[in-house]
Amino acid sequence: MTTSPRTALITGASAGIGATFARHLAASGYQLLLVARRADRLRELAEQLTGDHGVRCEVFAADLTDPAAPAAIVDFADQQGLDIDVLINNAGLSGKTAFADTPWDALAGEIQLMVTAPTELAHRVIPGMKKRQWGRIINLSSVAAFAPPGASLLYTGIKSYVLNASQSLDMELKPHGIHVTALCPGLTHTEFHDVMGTRDKADHLPAILWQQPDAVVTEALAAVMNGKPVCVPGVVNKISAAAMKPLPIRLGYFVGKTFNPFKNG
């Protein structure tokens, strides 16, 4: 009896870290469901990956600031007969103006994109993962999650939520064969700074602070496959995170798991 290849759903897949995840997983034989706003970029990437690796690659154009998007994505996967085994919640952005000067619609979109949508997508695919007793989820946090809050920015708080929620999910789901990892990269060579309009400032930062997407993704996939709840890729980022976070990750994870109020429920 032949077994269907596993399927990975990747958000923010049209460029940068998301596209790099797609390339790595396609090379490993995974079927892909690629999600982003830019349908043309998704189709181009899908055709390339299918041609290079012979894997099935579906695309779904969606704006994850739309509250209806997560349900629509999972409904599309169901219609295509795709069981989501790997979820990469990669889509993200950062605000460019002070909180009080930013229209509420923009702030609500930021929260929807990086808090509500990834949480809902996980909630929608986890039942299938539990049924199959296997699943992998990577949620894109940031090394900024270990830093003190930044003035006027929701970004640090959002990424802290992703970091903490991912560890909580991992504690709950690991007995079911599901690993959840918060990926906390630092400065990475992608289009992020171009989109945010911070390229000039970013280009003046020392080269030692930067990583290539391939290095980030390689470390992230190894971490989630090996059951590590937090992945801080790169030596410089590891040093930065350790210096900013008073409680070591392993100790904090142990305390959270030990005093879980639902462990006997």
How much is the average pLDDT? Answer: 87
Order of helices and strands: EHEHEHEHEHEEHHEHEHH
Question: How much of the sequence is in beta strands?
Answer: 15-25%
Q: How would a crystallographer describe the biggest sheet?
A: 7 strands, parallel
Looking at the structure, what is the overall shape? globular
CATH class: Alpha Beta
Continuous helix count: 10
Query: Tally of extended strands?
Result: 9
- End-to-end Cα distance, whole Å, is 38 Å
Q: What fold name stands as the CATH topology? A: Rossmann fold
Query: What value does the Rg take, in angstroms?
Result: 18 Å
SS content category = alpha/beta
Helix content: 40-55%
Strand line-up of the largest beta sheet: 3-2-1-4-5-6-9
Residue windows where pLDDT falls under 50 for at least 5 positions:
193-199
CATH homology superfamily name: NAD(P)-binding Rossmann-like Domain
**How many structurally independent domains?**
1
The name of the CATH architecture is 3-Layer(aba) Sandwich
Brief synopsis:
The chain is 49% helix and 15% strand. The chain is an alpha/beta fold and 265 residues long.
Walk me through the structure.
With 265 residues, the protein is of the alpha/beta class. The chain is 49% helix and 15% strand. The strands form 2 sheets. A 7-stranded parallel β-sheet has the order 3-2-1-4-5-6-9, with helices on both faces. A two-stranded parallel sheet has the order 7-8. Strand 4, helix 4 and strand 5 (135-140) form a beta-alpha-beta unit.
